[in-house]
Structures are given as structure tokens and as C-alpha cells.
From TrEMBL, chain A:
Involved in heme d1 biosynthesis. Catalyzes the decarboxylation of siroheme into didecarboxysiroheme. Pfam families: AsnC_trans_reg2, NirdL-like_HTH. It is an enzyme of class 4 (lyase). It catalyses: siroheme + 2 H(+) = 12,18-didecarboxysiroheme + 2 CO2. The keyword DNA-binding applies. Signal peptide: none annotated. Residues 66-140 form the Siroheme decarboxylase AsnC-like ligand binding domain. InterPro entries: AsnC_trans_reg2, HTH-Siroheme_Decarb, NirdL-like_HTH. Belongs to the Ahb/Nir family. This is siroheme decarboxylase. Keywords: DNA-binding, Lyase. GO terms for molecular function: DNA binding; lyase activity.
From TrEMBL, chain B:
Probably forms a complex composed of NirD, NirL, NirG and NirH. All proteins are required for the total conversion of siroheme to didecarboxysiroheme. Pathway: Porphyrin-containing compound metabolism. Pfam families: AsnC_trans_reg2 (PF17805), NirdL-like_HTH (PF22451). The lineage of its organism: Bacteria, Pseudomonadati, Pseudomonadota, Gammaproteobacteria, Methylococcales. Residues 32-77 form the Siroheme decarboxylase NirL-like HTH domain. Residues 88-176 form the Siroheme decarboxylase AsnC-like ligand binding domain. This is siroheme decarboxylase.
Amino acid sequence: MSLTPLQKRLLNDFQRGFPLSPQPFQALADALGVDEAEVLENLRTLSDSQMVSRVGPVFAPQRVGSSTLAALAVPAERLEAVAAWISDLPEVNHNYEREHRYNLWFVLTAADPERLDAVLARIERHTGLAVLSLPLLEDFHIDLGFPLDFGSGPT
Amino acid sequence: MSGMPLRAVDFPAVFPGPAPVHCGTHSDAASDLRLLAAIQHGLPLVPRPYAELGRQTGLSEAEVIERLERWLETGIIKRLGVVVRHRKLGYRANAMVVFDVPDAQVGAIGARLAAFACVTLCYRRPRRGEAWPYNLFCMIHGRDRATVETQVEALTLACGLEAIPRAVLFSRRCFKQRGAVYR
């Protein structure tokens, strides 16, 4: 899908500082010189096409619940099956193949450290592989959103 | 003010488990938890989203707005706005870059790395012996691999990390990506 100028501005200009006023989409519409219905319709389209994950909060890690970045070194012939099993765990919210001996990387989130440990143990039992668990110790990044460059890309 | 973290034990409805023992009054905790659960997948795309969240959680529109303001002030919410999916927008190259930085320098170097626009996350994490000797992680998103490789070189030089052990883990397949579900 090719993006309209309005959609590009919706994607780029409101990644932070979203209005906390009763009609925030009207405030976006005023800033963009369009009407509220058009803003809502385009945000729905961008959400349906999965370009927008959500309009909402990014929670600070480790402020709510307990989480860790985990990795497995999975033999190549088992990677797809192990990855699919990991993705099906409700505690997993990101799961990527990466170029390394540790080739499967995923983020686990649970209510508390005990439950997180139980999930890690379950993964080791099921896969027979040792899990590398790397919980966050310090966050250096202030999340200001991600500036999108529409100049040279395929969109 | 740094604020008290939201802890799972304060939110028994979302984090079912043994009932926590409260010494003080936690009258807002249950509705905080309902609001947290209602908003984690985003605002409803309707003209009065905060009123709709209030309807779902037993709060007034003004109370929803006031709590979100407080969560932003205390840093529980890092930002509120449009959350994009990089891959769907053509940012297909994604590298996790990891360094083994002396512990005394990790704060200063982490802060410098985090200031680069291409760096979307920057964390200190524990080393795990010989299996995993790295303690500083950053994530870089770019349109293609060559761009990301150039960015890795640039920030390595800018932060004086040429002699520091590092690894660059490009992503291949994304099996799953979504916001965290707290339960």
C-alpha cells in the first residue's frame, strides 16, 4: 500500500506527546487541517495494515511486571519448530531469529520473578536447551519515538 | 520525582496469585490495574477515547486523563502516541549490537550510544561468563543492511569503542512481535 501525505504525517508527527484532552483525534485533525473522521479512518487503515501497532502507551520495562531478554542456541534443523513453540507462549511478546550461535531471541514478560523463572524452566524442559536470560539492569534510552524517512524508501 | 513502580503484587486482578498484604490504603490499585489492562493494546479509535476507557474501567474521563498524566510524569509510561512497526514501514534491517564495556564506563558510554537517532533501545544487561561476555546492548533499525553497518561503524568510532569486544546480531525472521501482555 502506498502512503498518502496525511498518512505519513500521522505515522511520524504523533509518536509522542499525544494529546491528553477529551478529543485528542480532533486535536490531531486541527494540526493537520483535516477533519476528525478522516484522522480516525486513516489510523484504522494504518492499524489494519499493521504499519501502526497501536496508538497508546509505551510502558517502561521492569516498571510493570517482570521481564527478561532470553536467547537459545537452536540446532538449525529444529529452529522452526522451537520458534513456533516459543511464539505460542503467552509470556512471549517478541521472537526473532538472529545471526549468531544464539540464534533465537525473545522477550518474556510475567507478573513476577517467580512466574518468569517458571517459564524459563519450562522452556528448558521442553527444548532440552539452556536458556540465556539477560534481564535489564539499566535503561539508557529515552524513548522519543522513531523518526521515519520517507524520502528514499519503497513506501 | 521517580515515583513508585507499579508492582505486580499491587494489581491482583491482572496478576492473579496469593493476595498481597497491604499496610496502607490502595483504593486506586484495582482501577489502575483495570486501566492498565484496557490501554495496553492502545486507545480505542473513537472520538472520545478516554471516556470510552473510563466506561470500560469504572472511571470518569477526567480520572483516566489524570492517571495517564501521572504515569507519564513518573515514567511508568515512556511515551504516549503512535507506535509504528518498523518492518512494515520498510525498515527491514535490524541489528542488536552488543559490547563488553568496562563496568565503570558503562553508564557514560550507554548514555552516548542512546543519543544516536538510529539507536532505538540501549540497555545494560548481565554478562553470562564465556557463553555471553557482553554487558551493553543497543538496537539499530535501518532500511537496509549496508546502512545499519555504516551506522554501527559510525557510533563505534564516535564513542571510542573500536578496541572493545563487540558482536552485531542482525535479525533474520520475525516470528512474533506485539506489545507485552501483563497477566
